[in-house]
Amino acid sequence: MKKFYASSLILFFIFSLVCCQKNELKNNDSATIDGHPAWIMQGNIYEVNVRQYTPEGTLNAFAKHLDRLKAMGVETIWFMPINPISKVDRKGSLGSYYAVSDYTALNPEFGTIEDFKNVVQAIHDKGMKVLIDWVPNHTGADHRWLKQHPDFFVKDSTGKAAMAVDWADTRQLDYKNPVLQDSMIAAMKYWVEKTDIDGFRCDVAWNVPANFWKKSIPELKKLKNVFMLAEGDSTYLPKSGFDAVYPWHMFKMMGKVAKGERPAFSLDSINAENDRMYPKNTIQMYFTSNHDENSWNNADFGIFPGIVHAPFAVFSQTMKNSVPLIYSGQEEPVLRSLKFFDKDPISFKNFQREAFYKTLLNLRKRNIALSADASFKKVQVGDEKAIYAYVREKNNEKVFVILNLSGTEKPISIKDNNLIGKAFNVFKGSTEVISSKETKMKPWGYTIYEYKSK
């Protein structure tokens, strides 16, 4: 009896130790997986357009939505730029978020720096993370550096600070100047040190040279295990230290499949291209909409209209190497383009997609098979011109996704013995017995099966 009791204690101790280690890895902000912050691997990102989120357009007004977003399953809040906006050459009545006039100040329209610190603390208290949008490629047309450090800017043919690309309200920064580089790093450090944010989404990262990222990102990670997201899909970005990039090629192909211009299996060509382009551990932030795509290209209601949205949202939430994004109002859903330079508040009333997103976000959080580094295997279960099916797997956990990316009902037949048997239908919320018997999938249908580890 004593031997049995002692053995039981030892087993209990080992079990407790393993559980503690798992929880410690999940909750330890300094933990990494494949070089990335561990907390992002099964995480998600929710982009906040502060100006349009509430009638008030302030951080404090937005904060009233935090409990709702937490309940929906949101884990990381990304704020569009929170810096003051230039008035010279301003577009519209309020200007572009991306025409920054001061990197170390807060836009007074949104509140005070203390308001932001309090919101960050409130987000952290709820177990969520915070990213801010950073605009390193260019400043606004009246940024204080234009007078204080004119040598920080590229010059046009007249000797004046040059416009960035074709954005008349901006001025192009010159990264050949090492003092500029140090000043930009100092500004980014300011927000980590003073407000305790957890990372940056870097605007137009593709037009900032690699030597700056190779210098700045290690400096930031010395302060905190920050998550670095690059707006861009250039191969050099993950090689320069970014944790994640944009999947522009895949997003464009998703749009073509949605319109019926390309078959579902065209998505495979983008997967193969990504495998060739990027280091193996590169994360991509998948989405059906973001601030640019919403305002300029009518996403998601135009690119993925009506019922077309759902299977592509499932795809973005379950694809390999992915961390998914939800944009402000997609849970409502907002079925219009939000104005970019003027006030155009979202009206939250119905939350028709909230349960849909909650199901997806909670699945990703609880099942390691949807971790960014989990394996991916394509499965043939029907007409591959329309049906796109795949299995994600890690640590004996498995998720099986079937999508009908067409407007026609299609037959489904599962032949893989590893997928036949009992599985949990995620959206139905019940266990089913999967057989090889042919079934039908509705137009733009979707199913996710979760296999419990044995």
Indicate the topology.
Elements: H1 2-27, E1 32-33, E2 36-37, E3 45-48, H2 50-53, H3 59-63, H4 66-72, E4 76-79, H5 113-125, E5 129-134, E6 138-140, H6 145-148, E7 170-172, H7 178-195, E8 199-202, H8 210-223, E9 227-230, H9 236-239, E10 244-245, H10 248-258, H11 266-277, E11 283-286, H12 291-297, H13 309-318, E12 322-327, H14 354-366, E13 375-379, E14 387-394, E15 397-404, E16 410-412, E17 421-425, E18 430-434, E19 439-441, E20 446-451
Helix pairs in contact: 7-8, 10-11
Share of residues in helices: 25-40%
Number of strands: 20
Low-confidence stretches: 1-26
What is the CATH topology classification name of the largest domain? Answer: TIM Barrel
- Domains (count): 2
Mean pLDDT score, rounded? 94
Treating each run of at least 4 consecutive H or I residues as one helix, how many helices?
14
Return Rg in Å: 23 Å
Within the largest sheet, what's the order of strands?
A: 9-8-5-4-3-12-11-10
Largest sheet: 8 strands, parallel
Helix and strand content put the structural class at alpha/beta
Short description:
The protein has 454 residues and is an alpha/beta fold. It is 33% helix and 19% strand.
Give an overview of the whole structure.
- The chain has 454 residues and is α/β, with parallel strands linked by helices.
- The chain has 2 domains: 26-373, TIM Barrel; 379-451, Immunoglobulin-like (Sandwich), CATH 2.60.40.
- 33% of the residues lie in helices and 19% in strands.
- α7 (178-195) packs parallel to α8 (210-223).
- The longest helix has 26 residues, at 2-27.
